[in-house]
Amino acid sequence: MFTVEEIPEFRIAFLRRTGPYGEANGMQMERLKSWAAANGLLGPDSAVLGIARDDPARTPPGDCRYDTCLVLPDDTEVRHPEVRAGRIAGGRHAVLTTAHTAEGLAHAWAGLFDGLAARSLTVDPARPVLERYRPAMLAQHLCEICVPVL
């Protein structure tokens, strides 16, 4: 079941990995969270994001890019040789809550675009799909997939 949410533009700190999607993305997320915790940036209201930048059906596995991101206040400085700063455009998103397991995410992704079409929601290809992880939801073994829609 989708909800529709207006997500504001926000600043991020991120690590980018190029290669096949999978287990290495989780290890990258742990690296970013360790950096964020060591710098006092990870708290109960933090949002960590995963962004698959390429469609693995159209991009060779070795060329797929995955960004692991932490939403930051605008005035936060990012000082680390591998962690970069950026911005994510805001706008309307269809948000799907799913189990935070490999199976739960795979199932959610498998029916995602058909589910959007059934609700007459059109994906905005100019903005990335976000996997959003927030501590309160993770405590319930849940996460969200936020699809930008027109």
What structural keywords apply?
single chain, 150 residues, Multidrug-efflux Transporter 1 Regulator Bmrr, Chain A, 8 strands, AraC_E-bd
Kindly describe this structure.
- By secondary structure, this protein is an alpha+beta fold.
- It has one domain: Alpha-Beta Barrel (Multidrug-efflux Transporter 1 Regulator Bmrr, Chain A), CATH 3.20.80.
- The chain is 25% helix and 35% strand.
- The protein contains three helices and eight strands.
- The chain has an eight-stranded antiparallel β-sheet with strand order 1-6-8-7-3-4-2-5.
- The chain is globular, with a radius of gyration of 15 Å.
- InterPro entries: AraC_E-bd, GyrI-like, Reg_factor_effector_dom_sf, SmbC-like.
- This is GyrI-like domain-containing protein.
- It comes from Streptomyces andamanensis.
